[in-house]
Amino acid sequence: MTKQEALFKYTLRLGDNSLILGHRLSEWSSYAPILEEDLALTNIALDLIGRAQALLKYAAEIESKARTEDDLVFKRAERQFLNVLLLEQPNGDFAMTIARQIFNSAFELLLFEELSKSKDEMLASLATKCLKEVKYHWRHAYDWLQRLGDGTDESHARMQKAINDLWMFTGELFEIDEVETILINDAIVIDTRELHDKWLTKISDAIKTATLTHPAEGYMQTGGRIGIHTENLGFILAEMQYLPRAYPDAKW
Asked: Over the stretch 69-85, which tens digit does the pLDDT of each residue have?
């Protein structure tokens, strides 16, 4: 694998993560528990989709095969998407959405802090811009974790179940392969395994403060980063890609 191929795949992974989570959060529009939260989740979704557009545009430039960011979103099959499995999981109840958010936002906060120092100027610039948004995403998820965990008996039970159910998808956030190894050697990206302990401390403290119990360590489900997904991604793509595939020559 060449450095160009590795950078393309890495940027594609980042873009796919933002795209799929942004789509998931957009599903809350008009369905959130209160109006203020409806607006908050929609704004976070817009942050993520905007980030996805920038990252996928850069990925297309790196690839140099005359594809655009729209081509990468609407003209790839399920096995060609490289997002982590955590982010394609259904919204479920509000507690499930917050558990997914707290896990991912804590990771992105650490990741983009490091990527802002990348020797790749475009990645560093995008990461610096994203950090402003991610800090808000983290605070939003943290505040809701506390309110639900230390709220009523029912909200506590639902929040605990959500943390437990999604925990098995968190290990994939810290995997590396040949893609990262090539870029690590050129100081373009960081070895995400180095972020695990900081992430775990951040998450553990948040869980404890919310009067919740840390999940037991166990089996971790992976595969998304190499294109092996749960059935959930297929349903997302069926909705997301329907119009561009049905009317490929349409101009919007």
From this structure: 999 999 999 999 999 99
Classify 3-246 by CATH class.
Answer: mainly alpha
| pTM of the full structure | 0.95
Output the DSSP codes for 135-197: HHHHHHHHHHHHHHHTS-HHHHHHHHHHHHHHGGGSGGGG---HHHHHHHHTTSS--GGGGHH
Instruction: Report residue 243 as tokens.
Output: 């119009």
Residue 187's nearest CA partner among 1, 7, 50 is: 7
| CA–CA gap between residue 114 and residue 188 (Å, rounded) | 10
pLDDT band at 252 (very low <50, low <70, confident <90, very high): low
How is residue 113 written in tokens?
């802090």
> What kind and span of H or E run contains 82?
none
